[in-house]
Amino acid sequence: MQEKTLNPFEIAKSQLKMACDRLSVDPVVCEILSRPYKVMEVKTVEISSKK
Known about the structure:
It contains two helices and no strands. By secondary structure, the chain is mainly alpha-helical. The longest helix is centred in the N-terminal third of the chain and has 16 residues, at 8-23. The radius of gyration is 18 Å and the shape is elongated.
């Protein structure tokens, strides 16, 4: 069995699709909303104290 990794972007796109389907949103609008205009990537860093 192949293990599938969770991809937050794919999860968000899936949730958007479900919302568009339930709200009967025009598929063109849903397609536009599924492509981000800007992306912000965040990385956590550990700061050590020098005491």
